[in-house]
Amino acid sequence: MKKTALLVLLIASAFVLFPSRVPSFSAQDKIQPSPGGYHGELDFPLSWKRYYTYDELQNILRDLAAKYPRLAELQAIGKSRMGREQNILVLTAKATGPAGDKPAMWIDGAIHGNEINGTTCALYTAWYLLTRYEYDPYVRGLMEATTFYILPGKNPDANDSYARLPNTANNPREPYRPEDDDGDGLLDEDQTEDVDGDGELSMMYAEDPRGGFKLSADGRRFVRVTEPADPAPRFRMIGSEGFDNDGDGRINEDDLGGPDPNRNFPFDWSLQNGEPYPLSEPETRNVMEFWLAHSNIFGSFHFHNTGRLIMFAAPQVSRAAAQMTAEQRQIQQERVRTQLEEMRKTNKYAQLFDRIVDPAYQNDMAVQTAIVTAGARILKDYRPTISGMVGQAQANSYFMFGRFAYLIELWGSPPDADEDGDGRVSEEEMMHWIDFDLTGEGWIKPRKVRHPDLGDIWIGGTAKKHITRTPPSRYMEDEAIRQCLFILYCSSQFPKVEIGEVNVIPATGDLLWVDVTVKNDRTYPTSSDRAVALRTAVRDRLKFASSSNITLVPITASSTTVDLYHMDDRASAGAGALTEFRLLGKSAQRFRYLVKKDGGDGWIEFATESRFGGKDKKRIAIKTE
After folding, report:
1. Could you tell me if 340 and 437 lie in one domain?
2. Which residues form the domain of 460?
3. Which residues contact 269 (CB under 8 A, 6 or more apart)?
């Protein structure tokens, strides 16, 4: 018998002899109570040690939707300028209701072409939710109550180029709108190109006796000449790798790309930042049209790089605060700094910001502070800060829709590369990190090549593409899972309106007081302060119903005293059969009703309806004594 056939027979025999070693899951026993157990990771095997091209990404999205039809649906929202579909995954447990009826989290990544680690984080979140649904009660609960709209690649043309082709760490960023950057009447004719064919783009140098650079002692970098008498061969920097395609004596002066897509949204747009006009790019316009059509979106996440920042959309500075003197601002900042130092004695992740907002927006500021405090705990080495505006997506999400929005700046300098603990990574420390942590694979060593326009030149002396802005593959999954957990935490804090205690208290004769508490134990309110200001907030509702022998007695005051011995203990008066209100996060409201009962047993029922907080109902029996 051949060795191959014998090996197959032995493996098959092992499965017969030891069937208990083969995992077998049924619909009833999939829930995994152990953190050391299997949670569905191999139900849809996917490598998180690489970046995916556009075609590969679309195949993954289609396969996920096909594998999990009860949880996922693929939806096209439009096409890019170059004709690529912008496809989103719509995730929710369909058995518990339509996607549009549930509060939703919007997640996108890589609005800038070179930020494809954001694509990874968005895709990982989709994969995590789908593969763990049958195994993880936490995920199952989120999917049953929430919808997730996930657009992994927001700028598909530039994203695909960055994943598939040689590029610098910083390019391409913008959508591919043809432009004449050098004013010669030609469009995008002089782009960065891989001159030496090594799959990476670096810097070009020419040997020049009067040049200001030399090779470092180890021959890996070009460093500045500091001593005029230094005998080392000298070099002149030419610029980024590429050719002079239009023969004008310049290189790379007319590259691909149009306006910054994250300056292309309407709120606080300016011509300087987002030319030529708001939503000029199909990629941003498709997203905006989807947002307009889906009022169930409650929050949004937008993945960028670089810098390890949790940037959150916060209310603008109040007019009074904007008029503070420099001395007053300094006093305010010192007060906040002192208070934060005290808070961090018991919680090193505590956050506090010196932004003073109008009273009508103070709850939004408090909520966002609480959320990013949790984010700092989950992400560990990410710093919360207030995000900007100028046509940015997260600013548009909050200020135009009233949604709680977050911009995450991923990766940046590796935190473990800071050897001296000064808070920055020097060039020497980066080289050590590449040598020890990456075993040298992240660096382009200078070498001489023949350039068709420039003759003999040197190319190299820089980090490779996936080092500074996008992480090397070995770091990708760790970054993605932490971002996923932060998203899931925020989703778990969407409002949930519930009916708490209902107490019936004899008043006099056939009159009864009925006190009902409505609560929301989540961090987010049922609507943001901004939504209230925009007049798009939908009021929460409390409905009263009863048996035919119980009737409501009107209470003319807006509130009533609950305890005569404690006059400040008051409840809002139930405004008839329908009462409208707004419930903040981590709060409860008590309502008092006066009812009249005409003989016999009866019942009273309360039901809540909240646009983002869901529904609840409670009925109690009223017995005749």
Report:
1. no
2. 178-256+428-467
3. 263, 278, 390, 391
Beta strand pairing call for 462-463 and 443-444: antiparallel
Q: Which uninterrupted H or E stretch holds 89?
A: strand 85-91
Q: How many other C-beta atoms lie within 10 A of the C-beta of residue 393?
A: 27
Q: Per the structure block, which two tokens stand in for 254?
A: 């007319």
SS3 for 493-536 is CCCCEEEEEEEEEECCCCEEEEEEEEEECCCCCCCCHHHHHHCC
Quickly count: other Cβ atoms within 10 Å of residue 239's Cβ: 13
Q: Are 541 and 608 in contact (CB under 8 A)?
A: yes
d(CA 448, CA 450): 7
Q: Closest by alpha carbon to 596, among 501, 502, 503, 513?
A: 513
Q: How many CB atoms lie within 10 A of CB 430?
A: 19
**Statement to judge: residues 403 and 435 lie in one domain:** no
Same domain, 325 and 380: no
Name the residue among 156, 82, 165 with its Cα closest to residue 115.
Answer: 156
Collapsing DSSP to helix, strand or coil, 462 comes out as strand
Rounded CA separation 382/349 (Å): 10
Q: How many Cβ atoms sit within 10 Å of the Cβ of residue 204?
A: 25
Phi, psi of 418 (to 5 degrees): -80, 90
Is the four-CA dihedral 295, 268, 355, 421 of positive or negative sign? positive
Q: Is residue 38 included in any domain, yes or no? A: no
Q: Determine how many CB atoms are found less than 10 A away from the CB of residue 473.
A: 14
Q: For residue range 331-374, what is the model confidence (pLDDT) as tens digits?
A: 999 999 999 999 999 999 999 999 999 999 999 999 999 999 99
Tell me the pLDDT tens digit for each residue of 539-577: 999 999 999 999 999 988 876 776 654 556 778 888 789
Tell me the per-residue pLDDT of 572-608, one tens digit each, with 9 for 90 and over: 888 789 999 999 999 999 999 999 999 889 999 999 9
The helix-helix angle for 54-67 and 156-164 (nearest 10°) equals 110
Structure tokens at 140: 């199952």
Counting the structural domains of the chain, the total is 4
**Rounded to 5°, angle at Cα 593 from 589 and 597:** 150
Query: What is the DSSP secondary-structure string of 546-604?
Result: E-TTEEEE---SSEEEEETTEEEEEEEEP-TTEEEE---TTEEEEEEEEEEE-SS-EEE
Answer for the pair 406, 302: CB distance below 8 angstroms, yes or no.
yes
Task: Measure the CA–CA gap between 91 and 488, rounded to whole angstroms.
Answer: 13
* 276 prior amide bond cis, ω within 30: yes
The tokens of 596 are what?
A: 């009249």
- Same-domain check for residues 213 and 233: yes
Q: What is the residue-wise DSSP string for 90-151?
A: EE--GGG--GGGS-EEEEEE-SSTT-THHHHHHHHHHHHHHHHTTT-HHHHHHHHH-EEEEE
Residue at 150: amino acid letter: I
Cβ atoms 76, 87 nearer than 8 A: yes
Same domain, 449 and 564: no
Residues 288 and 366 reside in one and the same domain: yes
Whether 316 contacts 416, CB under 8 Å:
no
Are 263 and 390 a contacting pair, CB within 8 Å?
yes
What residue has token string 């932060």? 486
Crossing angle of helices 476-492 and 137-145, rounded to 10°: 60
The mean pLDDT of 246-256, rounded to a whole number, is 81
